[in-house]
Write a structure and sequence with these properties.
This protein has 185 residues and is α+β, with helices and mostly antiparallel strands. It contains 4 helices and 9 strands; from the N terminus they run βααβββββαββαβ.
């Protein structure tokens, strides 16, 4: 005897997730803030123990790094708490934090590479994932800070792999799985 089973639409769904959430990496953020703290303390030591021009350099450096630690730390912690998702990839396209959704059809390629300038990151290279549009008009309106990214990487739709989770390889695998956009490594 042969039994025939009817297949429902629930049986046909793929077990793979059809969406990938790229979240800000809190560990990376706090590590970067902790790197600034010893620099701040070094400038305080220079200001306290040096004399003349070095004392002035120490005071100015302590003020600059103190403000940076407080401002960058506070603003970054607030952003991670309020908007923990940096980007969402699904079968329709990609949505970046503070940008509208972009369909996969507008992208020429997704590029993986080393952050520029390389000399600043020689000890521990940093990598980026750039979602490069076919036309510059396809990009969302850029802020002044994002214009530098457009000149350097060809897009302002960037993910720095050090600052997000999952890893760069997982993000690129999701792009290949969810779209027909070529990935250039």
């Amino acid at each position: 005897m042969c039994y025939r089973r009817e297949v429902s639409s629930a049986d046909r769904t793929s077990p793979e997730r059809t969406e990938l959430e790229v979240r800000w990496n809190q560990r990376s953020f706090w590590r970067n803030i902790l790197i600034l703290v010893p620099v701040f303390l070094a400038y305080i030591a220079i200001a306290a123990f040096a004399s003349g021009t070095f004392r002035l350099v120490g005071v100015v450096g302590a003020i600059v790094f103190g403000v940076m630690v407080m401002f960058v730390g506070g603003a970054g912690a607030r952003q991670i708490r309020r908007r923990p998702v940096a980007a969402t990839l699904n079968e329709f396209g990609v949505t970046f934090d503070r940008h509208n959704s972009a369909a996969w059809e507008i992208f020429r390629e997704v590029r993986f590479g080393r952050v520029k300038p390389r000399l600043l990151f020689a000890l521990r290279p940093l990598y980026f994932i750039a979602f490069v549009p076919q036309r510059a008009a396809d990009l969302p309106r850029a802020t002044p800070r994002e214009r530098l990214a457009i000149r350097t990487y060809g897009t302002n739709l960037l993910l720095m792999t050090e600052t997000v989770t999952p890893s760069g390889d997982d993000i690129l695998a999701a792009v290949e799985r969810l779209s027909d956009v070529p990935v250039r490594r």
